[in-house]
Design goal:
This is Pecanex-like protein. This protein is of the alpha+beta class and about 1200 residues long. About 55% of the residues lie in helices and about 10% in strands.
Length: about 1200
C-alpha cells in the first residue's frame, strides 16, 4: 500500500461526518445522510433548548425579585424533572404501541440501517428516533431525577447576579450566561434524550449506560466548586478557582468533543492509580480489584497514622505498614492457603500428590521478610528516639546520611547502566559481551556482569532501604503530630522506600541537594513544606518530567519519519510539518499538558497531528489482563516459552539489565520468528508483575517489514564485531526500540530444510521398504512387551477374584470373533459377496450397514466361548470364520484390480490361520492380536514376501528384552522365546499384512508423492488399506512405524548409514523417548510442545516451489534478545487505535495507521493491543515474578 492510502474510506468519512456533529452537540442528529421531514429537526431543537426554557423561567422570577435564588433552583429543577419523566414515558408508550407490529413485520433488507420512515410529527417512529429511551427502568428514573437536579443547580450556577458578583462585567456575564446554558443543554440532552457517542471511549460496550452520566458528572464538578465558594468563609484561592472554572465551563463542549476528559470508568481507575502511586506511595496494580483493595488499605493506613498520639508510634506504624503493603500480599495469601491445604491433606495420599500452582513463598522468604521488618523497626525507633533533632545543616546527622544516599545513587546508577548493551541508549557498553551468537561464550563473558548484578541487588534490596529509613527517622518534621501533610507525606515516603526503592532514592537525593543549597534561605520551600511533602512534589515532578521527555522523543520521531521515511511521506506531509513548526508553542503546550495529566499523547491517524488523549490507567485497556487472545495453532509455542522466559526475567529485572523497570514499561523480545511483548503491570519489594503477549507467526508484509527492522536493531547491538570501535554508536537511536540485553531461555529452535536429494533418491526409497519392516517389527514387539507389563499388574489385582490365567493377553479376549459363514459361489459377484467393501457407504449403504450391525452384535454372542480358549492356542472355529470372511474381500480385489483369472471350480488361494501352539508358554506375552494377521493376501504372495521378513533383526530385538516385571522366570527365557517358530509366524503375518496395507502387492519402489501421502496418513487406496484402517490401533502403529522409517531415512542421508543393529536400536529408542515425529496439524504435536518433548519432526510440501520440506524443532536453552520500547510511543499509538476503531469505526485492514513503520513499529504495536482492537495470539495472565 502506498503512503497516500486514504485515512478513512468514503463510507467511513460519511459516517464520521454524521457522528462528530452529534458528539459536539451532545446527541441531536442534524446530519442524517437522507431526506427527513423538517419537524424532525424542529423537534430536536425544541428538546435541546427545553432545559434553558425551564431554567429561564426560574432565572426571570429571580431577577424580578419574586423568589429567592434557592427557590429558583428548586423550581427549575422540578420543571425539568417533570419534563424528563414525561419524555421517558412517551418513549415507553411509543415502544409498547409498536412492539406487536414490529414482531409481525418482515425486515426490509433493502433499507439502510440508519434510515427511518416517519408518519407524523408525534408518531411512534418519530418518538423512537428522537428519544431512543433507556434499557433499564432504574436508569429511566435515575437519569430523570439527575436531569432535574442538574437543571436546578445549573440555573443557580448561571444566575446573572451571581456571575456579575464574580467578574463585575456585564459583557462577561452575558457571554458566560449564554454559552454556559449551551453547555448545560448539551449535558441534559446527552443524559435524558439521546446519548452521543463519545470520542473518549474506554469500554467497547456501554452495558450499564454509564456514558450518559459522563457530561453531567463534569458539570456537577464545576457546580460543586461554586457551592463550596457560596457556603464557606471568604477564601481567596477558592474564589479565584471559581472564577477560572466559570470561564472553563464554557469550553466543556470542546473538551468533550476532543476527547480530553475521560469517561467515568477510566477517570476513577486513573484517579485511584495516581493517588495510590503519588499520594500513598504504592504502585499501579495488575487488576481493578487489586487496585481498589490496595487503595482502601493504603488510604486507611494514612488516616490511621493521623490519630496515633506518639511520635515513636507514628514512625513505627509508618515503617511497618510501609513494608507490609509493599509486599505481594495476594501471593503470600495464596501461599499460606496452599500450605494449610497441604498440611491438612498430608495424611491423605489422594491429596498429597495434588499439583497446585508453584508459590514462591516458603520458610526462607518468611524469615527473610520477618528479619528485614524487625531490623527496620528497630532502626527507625532507635534513631528517632535517641538521635537529637537539629536543623538541617551540612554537619547534621541527616546531612551525613544524605551524603551516603548520594553515593549509593551514583553507584547503583553505574551498576545498572553497565548491565545493558548500550550506555544511555547511545554508546555501546564496552563491558558487554562482544557477540551473542554462541551461547557458551556469551554466558562465560556474562558471568562478570552477573556478579555486578548481585552487588547491585544487595545494595537495592538491603542497603538503600535502611539508609533511607535512617534519613527519614532523623527528620525534624516528625516531631510535630496531627498534621495532615506529615501523615500523607511520610506515609507515602516510608512506603516508597520498599515499594519503589530506586525512585525513592532519587527523590531523597534531589530533596537533600536542594536542602543543602537552600538550608539558610527563607524561601517557600523551607518555610511552608515539610520533608514528606517535598518528597511527594519531587516524585510528581520526576514522573512528569520523564513522561515529557518520552513524549517529546515520540513526537520528534513521528514528525521526522513522516518525511525521512519515503513510504510514510504523504502529499500533506510538508504542510503538516510546516504547521507544527509555525504552531510549535501550541504543540509543546499540548505535549506538556499531556505529561501533566499523565495521559497519552495521541497522534491522529499516527500523523504529526498531536492531540491530548484522555487519562487512563497505565494498562491502557479496561479488561482483565490475559483474559482474551486470538488463539490459533501458534499459541502453543508461546505457552511453552512463557514459564522459562518469566524465570529469565527474574534475574534480569533484579540485576537491572533491563534498565529502570517501572509499571507501564514495555519490552519486546525476539527469537527467530517469535515476538514476545512484555508489559510491567506492578512493582513492589522483591517482586514484579508482568503480562507477556505473543504476536502472530503468520507474517504479513507489514509484520515482516517491521520484524526485519527489529532484527537489524538487535543485530547491530549484539553481534558486535571485534574490530569495531569500543564506543560505537547506536545507529537506531531514533527508533522506539532500544536493545537491553539477551536472556537465556529454554525454548524451541525452528529449523526448516528442503529434502530434495533425500526423498527423491532412488536408493533411499528402495531402502525405505526394508527399513519399514525392521521398524515395524521393533514397534510391534515393544507394543506387546509394554502391554504384557500392564497385564501383569492387572493380573496381580484380579488373580484371586476372577481366577483368570496370569499369562493371558486381554486383547485376544476383547477381539471380535465372528460366526462362520458359508463361502458364496465365486461367480455370484453381488453386494453380499463384497459386503466388507464400502466407500464411505455411499453406493451400497443398506447392505454394509446391516453387516456392521451384525459385526457389532455377534461378539456379544460368542464372548462366553472365547473365555474358554487355552493360552497358547487360537479357537479353531474363530479361525475358520476369519478365513471364510476374507473370501469376499479377495473376490472384490480380483474383480476390481484385474488379477489373473482363475478357472471355475478352482479354489482360490487365501491366507490360512492354523492353530497357534507356542513352544514357550511365555510367548503369549508377546503375541499380537489374531485379527492383526488376517489381511486378504494370497498365500503365494505371502510366501513370496516372507523372504523379506528381517529374521535376524527379529531375533536381535527379542534378545534386547529384559522381562524384569516377571518375578519367576526361567533363566533361558529369551532363548526359548527367540526359538519359538509359532511366535515368529505371528509376526511374519502381522508385519507383512501391514506392509501389504501400506504398499499393496507391488514390489516397486514408492514414489516421493506416495511417501508423502503415506506419512500424512492419506495413503493411496488399495484393498489392504481398507483392511488396515479397519484395525485403528494397528493402523496407528503402522503409521508410526512409517514415520519413524522416514525420519531414519533422513538421518541416514544426513549422518551416514547405520553400522549395526545396536545403532539402529539406539535410533529407534531415541525416537520413542525424545522425539515426536508427525504433522504440525496433529493434536499430539501441540501436546508434545507443551510437554516439552526434546525434538519434533514434521514433513511438509511447498506447492509454490514444488519441493518437500522437513521441519525440526529442538528444545534447548538459547539467547532471546530483549529491547525496551518507548512507553509513551506505545501508549500514544494505542490511544489512536482506541479512538480510530471505537469512535471512527475505521476497521479497514489496509488503513494507513496499521501499515508498516520501521521506526514506530506501528503494525507490531497494533497487534499487541488487547482484543478486540489488537490480535495477539497469546496473552498470559498476570505473572508474579519474584526478585528475591
Amino acid at each position: 500500500m502506498g503512503p497516500d492510502v486514504p485515512l478513512l474510506n468514503d463510507y467511513k468519512q460519511e459516517f464520521f461526518l454524521k457522528r462528530f456533529p452529534q458528539t459536539v452537540l451532545g446527541g441531536p442528529r442534524f446530519k442524517l445522510g437522507y431526506c427527513v421531514p423538517p419537524y424532525i429537526y424542529v423537534n430536536q431543537i425544541i428538546l435541546f433548548l427545553t432545559p434553558w426554557v425551564m431554567g429561564g423561567v426560574g432565572t426571570l422570577l429571580y431577577q424580578l425579585d419574586i423568589i429567592k435564588d434557592y427557590y429558583t433552583a428548586a423550581l427549575s429543577g422540578g420543571l425539568m424533572l417533570v419534563t424528563a419523566l414525561i419524555l421517558q414515558m412517551t418513549n415507553l408508550y411509543a415502544r409498547e404501541k409498536t412492539v406487536t407490529v414490529e414482531r409481525m413485520q418482515i425486515q426490509n433488507t433493502l433499507r439502510d440501517e440508519d434510515e427511518y420512515e416517519f408518519s407524523s410529527c408525534v408518531g411512534s417512529e418519530t418518538i423512537k428516533f428522537i428519544i431512543p429511551g433507556k434499557k433499564y427502568i432504574v436508569n429511566t428514573v435515575f437519569h430523570s431525577f439527575l436531569a432535574g437536579v442538574m437543571c436546578g443547580l445549573g440555573t443557580w450556577y448561571l444566575l446573572p447576579n451571581r456571575i456579575t458578583l464574580l467578574y463585575n462585567n456585564i459583557g462577561g456575564t452575558v457571554v458566560i450566561f449564554v454559552f454556559g446554558w449551551v453547555t448545560i443543554c448539551i449535558g441534559e440532552y446527552s443524559l435524558i434524550i439521546n446519548t452521543a457517542t463519545e470520542t473518549a471511549t474506554f469500554q467497547a460496550l456501554d452495558t450499564y449506560e454509564i456514558t450518559a452520566l459522563m457530561r453531567p458528572f463534569y458539570i456537577f464538578v464545576f457546580i460543586a466548586v461554586d457551592l463550596a465558594h457560596r457556603f464557606t468563609v471568604n477564601i481567596p484561592v477558592l474564589e479565584q478557582t471559581n472564577q477560572i472554572l466559570h470561564i472553563a465551563f464554557l469550553f466543556l463542549p470542546f473538551l468533550w468533543a476532543l476527547g480530553i476528559l475521560p469517561p467515568l470508568d477510566a477517570l476513577f481507575l486513573w484517579g485511584m492509580e495516581q493517588v495510590l502511586e503519588f499520594g500513598l506511595g504504592g504502585s499501579p496494580m495488575s487488576s481493578n480489584t487489586r487496585l481498589l483493595v490496595m487503595f482502601l488499605f493504603s488510604a486507611g493506613t494514612a488516616i490511621a497514622s493521623y490519630f496515633i498520639p506518639s511520635t515513636v508510634g507514628v514512625v513505627l506504624f509508618m515503617t511497618g505498614f510501609g513494608f507490609i503493603l509493599s509486599l505481594n500480599l495476594s501471593e503470600i495469601g495464596l501461599a499460606f492457603k496452599h500450605t494449610m491445604i497441604s498440611h491438612l491433606a498430608s495424611n491423605n495420599s489422594k491429596w498429597s500428590k495434588s499439583s497446585g500452582p508453584r508459590i514462591h513463598f516458603g520458610w526462607r522468604e518468611f524469615f527473610f521478610y520477618l528479619t528485614v521488618l524487625t531490623l527496620a523497626l528497630i532502626e527507625a525507633s532507635l534513631l528517632h528516639h535517641f538521635a537529637g533533632f537539629s536543623a538541617f545543616s551540612k554537619a547534621s546527622p541527616q546531612a551525613i546520611v544524605s551524603y551516603i544516599l548520594i553515593i549509593l545513587l551514583i553507584v547503583m546508577w553505574i551498576l545498572r547502566e553497565i548491565q545493558g548493551v548500550y550506555l544511555f541508549g547511545i554508546f555501546r557498553n564496552p563491558f558487554y559481551p562482544k557477540d551473542v551468537r554462541t551461547m557458551t561464550v556469551f554466558m562465560e563473558t556474562q558471568r562478570r556482569l552477573m556478579k555486578v548484578g548481585v552487588v547491585r541487588r544487595i545494595l537495592l534490596t538491603l542497603v538503600s532501604p535502611f539508609a533511607m529509613i535512617a534519613f527519614l527517622s532523623l527528620d525534624s518534621s516528625l516531631q510535630s503530630l496531627h498534621s495532615v501533610s506529615i501523615c500523607i507525606g511520610f506515609t507515602r515516603t516510608f512506603r516508597m522506600v520498599w515499594q519503589n526503592t530506586e525512585n525513592a532514592l532519587l527523590e531523597m537525593v534531589i530533596v537533600s541537594i536542594v536542602q543543602m543549597l537552600l538550608f539558610n534561605t527563607d524561601v517557600w520551600w523551607n518555610r511552608s513544606l515539610d520533608t514528606g511533602i517535598r518528597l511527594l512534589l519531587a516524585g510528581v515532578i520526576r514522573d512528569r518530567l520523564l513522561q515529557l521527555i518520552s513524549k517529546l522523543q515520540f513526537a520528534v520521531a513521528v514528525l521526522l519519519t513522516s518525511w525521512t521515511e519515503k513510504k510514510q511521506r504523504r502529499k500533506s506531509t510538508a504542510s503538516l510539518i510546516t504547521l507544527n513548526i509555525v504552531f510549535f508553542p501550541i504543540v509543546l503546550a499540548f505535549i506538556a499538558v499531556s505529561a501533566l495529566l499523565s495521559s497519552p499523547m495521541l497522534p491522529l491517524f499516527t500523523l504529526p497531528i498531536f492531540l491530548i488523549g484522555f487519562p487512563r490507567p497505565i494498562r491502557s485497556w479496561p479488561g482483565t489482563v490475559g483474559a482474551t487472545a486470538c488463539v490459533c495453532s501458534d499459541t502453543m509455542y508461546y505457552q511453552q516459552v512463557v514459564p522459562s522466559l518469566a524465570t529469565a526475567l527474574q534475574s534480569a529485572l533484579a540485576s537491572g539489565s533491563l534498565g529502570l523497570s517501572l509499571p507501564g514499561s514495555h519490552y519486546l523480545c525476539r527469537f527467530q520468528d517469535r515476538l514476545m511483548w512484555i508489559l510491567v503491570l506492578e512493582r513492589g519489594f522483591t517482586y514484579c508483575c508482568v503480562n507477556i503477549k505473543g504476536l502472530e507467526l503468520q507474517e504479513t508484509s507489514c509484520h515482516t517489514a517491521e520484524a526485519h527492522r527489529v532484527d537489524e536493531v538487535f543485530e547491530m547491538a549484539f553481534e558486535h564485531q571485534e574490530h569495531a570501535e569500543t564506543f560505537s554508536l547506536n545507529h537506531h537511536f531514533g527508533n522506539i526500540l532500544t536493545p537491553c540485553t539477551a536472556l537465556p531461555v529454554r525454548l524451541y529452535s525452528d529449523a526448516r530444510n528442503v529434502l530434495s536429494g533425500i526423498i527423491d533418491s532412488h536408493e533411499n526409497l528402495k531402502q525405505l521398504k526394508d527399513d519399514f519392516l525392521k521398524v515395524l517389527v521393533w514397534i510391534l514387539v515393544q507394543y506387546c512387551y509394554k502391554k504384557s507389563k500392564i497385564c501383569e499388574k492387572l493380573d496381580k489385582t484380579t488373580k484371586n477374584k476372577e481366577g483368570s490365567f496370569p499369562l493371558t493377553q486381554p486383547q485376544a479376549f476383547d477381539s471380535a470373533v465372528e460366526k462362520p459363514r458359508p463361502i458364496k459361489d465365486e461367480d455370484s459377484f453381488s453386494v453380499d459377496t463384497i459386503a466388507d467393501w464400502t466407500d464411505d457407504s455411499d453406493l451400497f449403504d443398506l447392505e454394509p450397514s446391516r453387516t456392521r450391525e451384525r459385526k457389532e452384535t455377534e461378539p456379544l454372542e460368542v464372548a462366553p466361548r472365547t473365555l474358554l480358549s487355552v493360552p497358547g492356542s487360537v479357537d479353531m472355529e474363530s479361525a475358520v470364520g476369519t478365513l471364510q470372511e476374507t473370501a469376499p474381500e479377495d473376490k472384490l480385489y480380483k474383480a476390481v484390480l484385474g488379477l489373473p483369472a482363475v478357472d471355475k471350480g478352482k479354489k482360490q488361494e487365501v491366507v490360512s490361520l492354523p492353530l497357534v501352539e507356542f513352544s514357550c508358554s511365555y510367548s503369549e506375552l508377546l503375541s499380537i492380536p489374531e485379527e492383526w494377521r488376517t489381511a486378504p493376501m494370497p498365500t503365494s504372495k505371502l510366501n513370496e514376501m516372507r523372504q523379506r521378513f528381517p529374521e535376524d533383526w527379529y531375533h536381535f530385538v527379542l534378545s534386547q528384552l529384559d522381562f524384569f516385571h516377571l518375578k519367576e522366570k526361567p533363566s533361558n527365557l529369551l532363548e526359548d522365546i527367540t526359538k519359538d517358530k509359532a511366535l515368529k509366524e505371528l509376526y511374519v503375518h502381522g508385519v507383512l499384512s501391514c506392509c501389504f496395507g501400506l504398499f499393496g502387492l507391488d514390489n516397486t519402489v514408492p514414489a516421493p508423492s506416495h511417501v508423502f501421502r503415506a506419512y500424512t496418513g492419506g495413503i493411496p487406496w488399495c484393498v489392504g488399506l481398507d483392511w488396515l484402517t479397519g484395525k485403528p490401533e494397528l493402523f496407528q502403529l503402522a503409521l508410526k512405524a512409517f514415520r519413524y522409517t522416514f525420519k531414519l531415512m533422513v538421518d541416514k542421508a544426513s549422518l551416514g548409514p547405520v553400522e549395526n543393529f545396536k545403532e539402529l536400536i539406539n535410533y529407534l529408542e531415541e525416537y520413542e523417548s525424545d522425539w515426536y515425529i508427525g504433522l504440525v496439524s496433529d493434536i499430539e504435536w501441540q501436546q508434545a510442545v507443551l510437554q516439552e518433548k526434546p525434538y519434533l519432526f514434521s514433513l511438509g510440501h511447498d506447492p509454490n516451489m514444488g519441493v518437500y520440506t522437513g521441519r525440526v524443532l529442538t528444545l534447548q536453552e538459547l539467547l532471546v534478545q530483549v529491547g525496551k520500547l518507548n512507553d509513551e510511543a506505545v501508549r500514544g499509538q494505542w490511544a489512536n487505535l482506541s479512538w480510530e476503531l471505537l469512535y471512527a469505526t475505521n476497521d479497514d485492514e489496509e488503513r494507513y495507521s496499521i501499515q508498516a513503520h520501521p521506526v514506530l513499529l506501528r503494525n507490531l504495536t497494533v497487534q499487541a493491543a488487547d482484543p478486540p482492537l489488537g490480535y495477539p495470539v497469546y496473552s498470559s495472565a498476570a505473572l508474579h515474578v519474584p526478585l528475591l
